[in-house]
Each structure stands twice: as C-alpha cells, then as structure tokens.
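Following the same procedure, the fold was encoded as tokens, giving this record:
***
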Amino acid sequence: MFCALSLQAQNSQTAMDVFDRVAAKYNGMTDYEVNVRYEVGNSSMSGVLYYKKPDKVRINFSRPSNQVIVSDGKELTCYLPQTGVTFVQKLERNGNPIAAVTGEEGLSFMKKNYKISYNETPEFVQAEGLDVPVLRLRLVWRFTKAGFREIILYIDQNFNILRFEGIDAAQNSIVCTFSGYQYNTGIPDTRFDYTSPPTSYKQNNFLFDPNEE
C-alpha cells in the first residue's frame, strides 16, 4: 500500500526529476536479473534477462524455448532454435546495441535525445497487467536518429522500470514488461559464455561489417 505522504513526495517531482532518479538507480547497479516479456505486434516472447556492467547481457528465453541472445561486450550471439540459425556479430568497433538498451548507456541516450514529460498525469496510476501503481513518463524524440519516435516508461515507487512501450518511425510498437528484479547478486562473467549447438547454421556480422569505417 502507498501512504499519502509517499505519494505526495513522489508527485512533487518533475518528470525529469523522476527520470534522473531512475537513471541514478540503474547507474549504481553492478548487475541485475529480471523476468522479461516482449510483445511485438501479435507475437510475444518471454524469458530471463541478465545484465552486468558495463556491457554484458544475456536473455534466456522460455518462449520460444531454448532461444538465447547473449553478448560478452565483444561479440553478440543470437541463437534461434526454430530455424537452427546462429547470428554472430563482432562488436569491437561499434559498441553493444543490447547493452545500450538495458544499461545506463541507454538511459543517458534517452535523456540527450528525448523530451521527457509525464504521460497524461503526474499521479500514480494502476496500469493493466502490473501489480503496483506506477508513474508514466512520456519521451518524445528530438531527432529521428533516436530510433523510437515515442517511449512510455512505467516507473514504480522504488524507481524500477516495470514497462517500456516504444513506437518506432513506422508506427510499429514494442512492449517490454519487467518483473522480479534482483540487483547486485554477483553474476559471474561465465554467465555470458555461450556456445550454440554445433548443428546450427552460423551467419556472421549480420548487422554490419566490423571492418568498415
């Protein structure tokens, strides 16, 4: 339950104040583990996401079963069991696009490239599919390079991001819902080691050529 004083203290903050509190929390983490559900159009995926500073990420999917996305900061690997294909991307020169979304780099990018305000109300509201009331922040791109034209972040009283709703330039939507955060548990680097099945077909550098200027 939320007490009246807690709500009053939270709601006296500007949207940027709230965003900065969220960024400070995520910037202060060394690692975290969280359940995640992705919804893109009529399809959905779910699994467990592991993040470790500064750029290690792994998602073990339960749906689709056995699908894995993992990066040790130097190489991004995506194994798709339904097609038997493993996509591999070298990252030395271009950074880690997955870590940029899940870590502090992504929040810094949002602050620089988006206008941030409350979505409809500065009050806590009950959102469908979430167990606790949330504040909703609306981020609107300043520049088309930002990727998503609009983002809605759902923030709980502890400044956790519980949901990310993004609309891209083509008006496609992606919704990511997070639950069961566990922070600073000492996730080992070996968690981000991964070898795809030897029978899978490997496609290298599917995003870009790492040798190009």
In short: The helical segments are 4-11, 15-27, 97-102, 104-113. The two ends are 54 Å apart (CA to CA). The first helix runs from residue 4 to 11.
